[in-house]
Design goal:
Order of helices and strands: EEEEEHEEEHHHHHHHHHEHHEH
Largest sheet: 6 strands, antiparallel, barrel
Shape: flat
Structural class: alpha+beta
Number of strands: 10
Radius of gyration: 31 Å
Length: 412
């Protein structure tokens, strides 16, 4: 029998138990006044009753006696403790009453019925989740799997020369596309050096690599990852990687149904998938390392990146590649969770129109005060592409961070 929706593993003071059922008691503290000669009573609400939760649970197994004894000691301990209620989640409670029954006929089991009452203390904080680290973990998993998957789908044994030449052309095209994205970030010199360190651009070098598909896959994955080392703005780099995810979309379809054409078609799909998956992992890694300026910026990037990954997942699913579709879905989910977690507390953007022409530092002081004056002045100038910070034209609408969250937010 499966657990009900929303159920989670129960525990008290860190000691787990197996839940059997639960009862809750609540309501209002109502005082009824019945004045003399009055036909109707007067009721007075004194507030919510203290919540009571009765949990029926058990502990079993070869060492159940020791574990049950420890659990009983936790129930008898003084003060409030953390209860992870299987249905209601974490809360601070005190133990009002409990009973224990040991049943040997059912395979050595200790059955508890525990009455917990609200302690009035705030619920314990949940553990912080490093969503950026989880995203990088997913990116690393996809990078590690991509070369082997490529080798399973790519083959040149016994093929005609044009099939091999076409594959070499695609690999060279992928290297050029990566070099362009890198060049837009850090200059064409460093970009080409980074790409060439991972993938030779001469035709004979590429054709030699084609004979070792796993090594070629690792090289292309490394070339995609090298884009992160070139530098450039995080947001700009993300935009370039999202564009690079479109690699292969404009390739002409391969006509014909001969064995050679079928192999050429399958090899093209394998190369495109390899490049796309390598870039997708690099994209997720880049997003995990980016500090966003505003909530709107984070949401826009999350939407654009998630949509691009979703399109690739649908493409692979339509091609019958469930494994590839699942990889894109995993990357999309990790990226979305990461950006949602880190972007939710960021400052929002709002419109602001200065009444007169004045320096940007005056606007920053008026909106944010002295606490972050230098950072916010520069942010206003950069965001609105103001040519002269000493003369911000009046009656022109600017985009600025909301004052209530801007102090200490953004790039800081």
């Amino acid at each position: 029998m499966s657990a009900p929706e929303g159920w989670q593993k129960g525990s008290f003071r860190g000691l787990s138990f197996v839940s059997q059922g639960q009862d809750q008691a609540g309501g209002r503290r109502i005082v009824v006044h019945e004045p003399v000669q009055a036909e109707k009573p007067i009721t007075e609400d004194l507030g919510k009753k203290t919540g009571r939760f009765t949990l029926n649970c058990h502990i079993r197994g070869d060492d159940y006696i020791a574990r049950a004894d420890t659990f009983g000691q936790a129930l008898n301990a003084k003060g409030a403790g953390t209860l992870v209620h299987p249905w209601l989640g974490p809360m601070q409670v005190r133990v009002e009453d409990f009973t224990r029954s040991d049943i040997v006929e059912e395979g050595a089991i200790a059955v508890f019925s525990v009455v917990f009452v609200e302690s009035g203390l705030p619920a314990p904080p949940g553990p912080a989740i490093d969503t950026a680290a989880l995203s990088r973990e997913k990116a690393a998993l996809s990078a590690g799997a991509a070369p082997v998957q490529f080798a399973d789908r790519f083959a040149l044994d016994g093929v005609q020369g044009f099939v091999e030449a076409h594959a070499a052309e695609l690999v060279t095209l992928a290297a050029s596309a990566m070099a362009v994205v890198s060049g837009l970030q850090g200059g064409i010199g460093p970009a080409l050096a980074a790409i060439q360190a991972n993938l030779g651009t001469l035709p004979e070098e590429v054709q030699a690599m084609l004979r070792s598909p796993v090594a070629l896959g690792q090289t292309l994955v490394g070339a995609a990852q090298s884009i992160l080392t070139v530098g450039g703005s995080g947001v700009s780099l993300i935009g370039g990687l999202i564009g690079l995810l479109a690699f292969g979309e404009d390739l002409p379809p391969i006509a014909g149904s001969t064995p050679a054409r079928d192999r050429q078609r399958e090899n093209q799909a394998a190369i495109v998938q390899l490049v796309n998956l390598a870039v997708a992992g690099t994209l997720v890694d880049a997003v995990a390392g980016t500090v966003f300026d505003s909530y709107q910026e984070a949401v826009a990037i999350r939407t654009e990146a998630a949509d691009a990954l979703d399109r690739l997942a649908l493409r692979q699913a339509d091609a019958g590649d469930d494994e590839g579709a699942a990889q894109y879905d995993a990357l999309r989910l990790a990226l979305s969770r990461d950006v949602t977690s880190r972007g939710g507390s960021l400052a929002r953007l709002q419109d602001y129109t200065p009444a007169i022409t004045e320096p940007a530092i005056v606007i920053a002081y008026r909106l944010y005060g002295p606490a972050a004056l230098e950072d916010r002045t520069g942010e206003i100038v950069a965001r609105n592409r103001i040519r002269h910070p000493g003369f911000v034209t009046g009656a022109v609408t600017l985009q600025v961070l909301t004052p209530e969250l801007a102090i200490g937010g953004g790039r800081g």
